[in-house]
User: Fold this.
Amino acid sequence: MAMVQGARAFVLDVRDYRESSALVRLLVQGEGLVSLVGRGMRSVRKGASAPVLQPFALVHLSYSLRDPDGLGALRSAEVERQYDVLRTNIEAYALAGAWFEILLASAQPGPEGDRLFGLTEGFMNQIQMVGSAVAREPIFVARDASVLWYWARLLNEMGVGPQFGVCGRCGSKLQLHHFDLRGAETVCADCAAEHRRYLPLTGADVRGLQAVFSRSIPKDRTPLPQRSVLLFLRIVRDVMRRHLEMELKSFGFLSEVLGGKF
Ligand SMILES: [Zn+2]
Assistant:
């Protein structure tokens, strides 16, 4: 039996398990997806104070695991970081919910989950930083290019990143005024001419998407146009729906929060 001590992990999901235990699914640094039973750690205890472990928290834990795909036993856990922004900013909460739903649907046991862990920590730190930067003004976390940049990296990490900057039909780099959701690629004006199924892109959309899909994290804090953000999230949802072969429920909530259908 392998004993793991002092591992860092994000809590993905906590459920009641049998009489008084909790079933906790975590993304563990270096170990990927791990499912553990915490004896006497119900997700919500009657009359007790806060639940022991909550989704989105970054924790340190010790556990034992018989085989990597099985259920392990949680020995101890302590919270390294709670992300306050999730309680104060509903956009941050909705974005984190969608991110974690994708992790739950896609994370696998094993060390290759490590890159997802690093990305998740970067993403959570970024929404915390953006969401708490100016506490008295309304903050548009979802319109910050640096936040969406993590989403673009998540798509690329999963091998489903869309193609920008060149027409997916003819290779032209000019007049990329449309996006093909099915092929997840931009399409030039000439190639798009007869087809109505392509999404039209404005100049601001193209600039926004270029920033979001750039190699290094965008430094410009000017909020992206709402329209471009909804378009980007529509692309994310569509690509993920096909990749994971499931509907992501959290995207319905996210679109409500952002005040637009996508
Ligand atoms: Zn073309």
